[in-house]
Amino acid sequence: MKNRRFVLGSLLAMTLLGSASLSFADALDTIKKRKKILVAVDIGAPPFGMLDAQARKSGSDIEAAQLLAKDLGVELEVVPVSGPNRVPFLLTKKADVVMASFSITDERKKVIDYSLPYAVLQVVVGGPAKQKLASFADLSGKTIAVTRGTTSDQELSRGVKDVSNVTVVRYEDDATTNTAVATGQQDYIAAAMSVLPQVKKANPSRDVESRFSMKGFPLGIGIRKNEPELKSYLDGWVRTNVQNGKLNEIYKKHFGTALPADMLN
Where would one find the signal peptide in this protein (predicted)? Predict the structure, then answer.
């Protein structure tokens, strides 16, 4: 009887291990068999994602996603997301991967994985040029806008935790945050540096410019944990397209500058 239980237990363990191994391969296999990849992109975060004059999805993340789908030999389906729902959409399998100005942070790595960096994001505090604003301490007595759940939100929260009398107003997406600043509801903003020209473009009379940098972050393709075949493919894809210059061309087109030298090398 003991031997029988041992054999049955061993078979069950082998079955579970086999199932786990198959599940690891499912993500990449599913994409290829489906002949379509579902890529989550924030189309309200220009120039990473936006709608052009013809209401077509465009931006650096859209072009990178198009390149990924082409190299995979599958159709691209863009899944629109906002900053706060990028991780939930990934974990609930509404998207296969996330390419949405998705900075690599230790907090997020507790619940998801990333590819190697394919781009970079610099988050800054912006405000009127005439006002003193050189550090988080200068935000005392001020109200600042930020998009909830973003890297900018995380860095702003850290920076002002010991600063008294700061009011942080969190909006649900970048478009609403930008509108609040462009229309004068808020004078200060914590956001990606690339956001500030969009605010200025929406209202050229607004005196909002980058005042100091909070932090620079590499951007990765977000994937669920325990998907090693997909991660391996994406890491290889990033290496190839950084080395051949295609990802750098996309970045320069939208940001006017090359990727950092340490990424290119």
Answer: 1-25
